[in-house]
Amino acid sequence: MIDTWPSPAKINLFLYINGKRADGYHYIQTLFQLLDYNDTLKIIPNNSGKVELFTKKKSLINIKNTIFSAARILKEKALFYKNINTINFGAKIFLTKNIPIGSGLGGASSNAATTLIVLNKLWGIQFTLKELALFGLEIGADVPIFIIGQTSVGEEIGNVLYPILTKEKWYLVIYPNINISTKKIFSSPFLRSNTPKKSIKTLLKSTFRNDCEHVVTKQFIKIKKLITMLSLYAPSRITGTGSCIFSEFKNKKSAEKILFLLPKNMKIFIVKSINTSPLHDLLYKNISC
């Protein structure tokens, strides 16, 4: 029986900000590209009534961790919508963290999504993926993409998703050891937030851009210098609000050539794009969801 589950990363191939909502969120259009790179969660259900988290990064074991939030919300929704007594629902969760924190790769959102999907199965609650995606929005705007599990164009706040198929690419991803607050970037007075909304067809044919990049590179010279250097060899930009930078290549060998030119004091990895989450490959292959 499978007890260890993948929690994949993503990059935003483009990110356009179309305006600001009354609730403080922004209207966006973005292309979420799933990556063959992930954290793992070993999840062992029990009848203790409590969820325990174990990981080498002790700072992650706190009540604000999205894994705890996901388990709590799932129990609350099961009681409210399905009248299921969840008082004894518990689990031990062992997190192996590979995705850098505050990097724009979606690690925390992905962890929440994997927790929701797997505990929904292990606890026998049987919510649909669409229902879980709606619940996931209470944790963060990026949680639904990992629950739906398909490379997609995202609209509204990133929660309205249109799955697409992208050609396989290889990405050189650099984490410059900088943790960036998404909230601070989106609240910057220098943020470009009036990009006109376009059709998905038009977006996919256009040169990709990230509206947050100007703000990030203005605040972090290290990131600006890395993008400038990498752009000499391949299309390069930040993902999300950073801090990770990615460069796009048609094959792994081309990415490896550039890898050796980069400083050794940063986390750097080469990864290929995928269209379906590996979690979905394990749970839903050939099954209608």
Work out the strand percent.
Answer: 25-35%
Helix fraction, binned, reads: 25-40%
Radius of gyration computed on alpha carbons:
19 Å
Order of helices and strands: EEEHEHHHEEEHHHHEEHEH
Count the beta strands. 10
Q: What class, by secondary structure content?
A: alpha+beta
Major beta-sheet overview: 10 strands, mixed
| Total DSSP helices | 10
The rounded distance between the terminal residues' Cα atoms is 21 Å
Uncertain runs are: none
Say what oligomer this is. Answer: single chain
CATH-derived architecture: 2-Layer Sandwich
Please identify the top-level CATH class.
Alpha Beta
Shape annotation: globular
CATH third-tier fold name: Ribosomal Protein S5, domain 2
pLDDT average, as an integer? Answer: 95
Walk me through the structure.
The protein is an alpha+beta fold and 289 residues long. It has a single domain (1-289), classed as Ribosomal Protein S5, domain 2 (2-Layer Sandwich). The chain has ten helices and ten strands. Strands 1, 2, 3, 4, 5, 6, 7, 8, 9 and 10 form a ten-stranded mixed sheet that branches. α7 (213-219) crosses α8. The radius of gyration is 19 Å and the shape is globular. The mean pLDDT is 95.
